[in-house]
Design goal:
Elements lengths: L1 E10 L6 H6 L5 H4 L3 E13 L2 E3 L16 H7 L7 E6 L6 E4 L1 H4 L3 E5 L6 H12 L5 E6 L5 H7 L2 E3 L5 E3 L2 H8 L3 H13 L1 H4 L3 E3 H14 L16 H12 L6 H12 L5 E3 L11 E4 L5 H21 L5 E5 L2 H4 L9 H14 L1 E7 L7 H5 L1 E6 L5 H10 L5 H8 L5 E6 L6 E5 L6
Parallel strand pairs: 6-14, 6-15, 7-12, 7-13, 8-12, 9-11, 13-14
Antiparallel strand pairs: 1-2, 2-3, 4-5, 4-17, 10-11, 15-16, 16-17
Helix pairs in contact: 7-8, 8-12, 10-12, 13-15
The structure holds adenosine-5'-triphosphate and magnesium ion (MG).
């Protein structure tokens, strides 16, 4: 029978009586030889005729405990010998942990842990390992920490100002949450300014400045505006029919003022030739120069494109890494991109998209997205709330595992879920070549 030592204690019956201590020297070999090591062992499996079997009957109390050989440990934990080499077992540095790629990318995964616990280090190492044999990797990150990896692996990097959204009234209205009437004003402005605006990329500040000068120039011309047929998005279009008959109330100036204040909330770039992330090659989207609200808008656009292109044509499989996922899909509030993330968590698997959600605070991460993750990598999580929340969505729940998570050091993680048959505690190490 193979088991994991949970607790180890040294006892010596001589020292049951405190008086013994007064009469005997401390370093007495006869007495020391009576010491007994008592180990509390959790059975993991038993090996019978070279095959792994489950433990039906626990071992007898008092049974002897010996060190297991590496092949036996591998067999008992059902650790495969194929896949991405991510390190070794924390308790047994001779036993390598290899993640089978077909199982890993069959569902989604999440990587959780406090700041500095080793999440990004692990994901970068994993991407490196799978770069030649795994799916295409798309990384959405609010920092520039993946740029080095992208450079080394020859991935495309999109950063400001290459991150351009579609320069259409519908898209701008959706991004800034403009009302129907405000969209009509914006549309008229864009139609009027078509020749002056030109083909290139426009920042939201430039759009705001042109809008101000447009208002100053042609007040009388723009006081009565009517929507252009067929120019609205599907959801706006649905109630547009009734709204069309009602001319926009209030003055255009007031609407322009509200548009300007809304447009000022996010610094973004728009272009008639917006960014098209090529989902068939690995790419990093570095959102570090954008405000949080702008990062959400860009994420919503990219994920919307991904869903659209995958529904149209499945194409190559995609490994979509989302850093700081609790910011983009928080548990309570809503964000511009939360719906798309939840949609991908629900439908992505069938479309060949495997999500990798990275978060410091699983408690603050959307429960639906988290619950769709088949494999969970938990680094040190000191907050009991986070640990309970995480195990709440995991099929494996035990107080020993919670305790193991609290004791993890930097670069150590507990792996549960599909990718391992039994929970294992791993020391992440990418120094050796796989
Ligand atoms: N397995 C490891 N082996 C060696 N060093 C590691 C390991 N994991 C993490 N480190 C070290 O710890 C540092 C912090 O790790 P990392 O950037 O992965 O933290 P994080 O969990 O992503 O934190 P944050 O949530 O703040 O982004 C790394 O820069 C690296 O130096
Ligand atoms: Mg990180």
């Amino acid at each position: 029978m193979i088991g994991e030592i949970i607790e180890r204690e040294a006892v010596n019956p001589y020292f049951n009586k405190p008086t013994v201590l007064a009469y005997l020297p401390e370093d007495n070999d006869d007495i020391n030889s009576q010491a007994l090591y008592v180990s509390k062992v959790r059975p993991v499996g038993r090996i019978c005729d070279g095959k792994r079997r489950d433990v039906d009957i626990p071992p007898k109390p008092g049974s002897n405990v010996y060190s297991a050989a590496v092949p036996e440990i591998r067999l008992a934990l059902a650790l495969g010998d194929q896949g991405a080499d991510i390190g070794t077992l924390k308790a047994q540095p001779d036993v390598k942990v290899l993640l089978p790629l077909d199982v890993l990318f069959r569902t989604h995964l999440c990587v959780l842990g406090r700041t500095g616990s080793g999440k990004s280090f692990f994901v970068k190492g994993l991407i490196d390992r799978i770069s030649r044999q795994g799916p295409q990797t798309i990384i959405l990150t609010p920092s520039d920490e993946y740029d080095d990896l992208a450079f080394r692996l020859g991935y495309e990097v999109y950063g400001e100002p290459r991150i351009c959204l579609p320069f259409t009234p519908t898209y701008i209205a959706m991004t800034y949450g403009l009302t129907y009437a405000e969209q009509i004003v914006l549309e008229s402005f864009m139609k009027d300014q078509e020749s002056e605006i030109g083909e290139g990329a426009h920042s939201s500040r430039q759009i705001a400045a042109s809008l101000r000068s447009w208002l100053g120039r042609g007040k009388e011309k723009i006081t009565r505006l009517t929507p252009v047929q067929g120019s609205f998005s599907a959801d706006v279009e649905s109630d547009a029919a009734s709204l069309r008959k009602i001319p926009p109330r209030g003055s255009v100036e007031t609407r322009v003022d509200t548009i300007l204040s809304k447009v000022g909330s996010k610094d973004l770039w728009f272009s008639a030739h917006p960014m098209r992330v090529p989902f068939e090659t690995s790419t990093v989207l570095n959102l570090s120069r954008l405000s949080a609200a702008s990062q959400e808008a860009v994420t919503a656009y990219v994920l919307g494109n991904l869903l659209e292109s995958k529904r149209r044509e499945r194409g190559a499989d995609v490994f979509l890494v989302l850093e700081e996922a609790h910011m983009f899909a928080p548990s309570v509030q809503t964000t511009a991109c939360k719906e798309k993330i939840v949609q991908l968590a629900r439908e992505g698997r069938k479309l060949g998209v495997s999500l990798c959600l990275i978060s410091q605070r699983p408690r603050h991460l959307d429960q639906t997205a988290l619950s769709q993750c088949g494999s969970i990598f938990i680094f040190n999580l000191p907050h009991p709330d986070d640990v309970e929340h995480t195990f709440g969505v995991s099929p494996v729940y035990s107080s020993e595992l919670i305790e193991a998570v609290r004791r993890l050091g930097v670069g150590e993680c507990l792996i549960v879920g599909d990718v391992v048959k039994y929970p294992v505690v791993c020391r992440v190490d990418f120094r050796e070549a796989s």
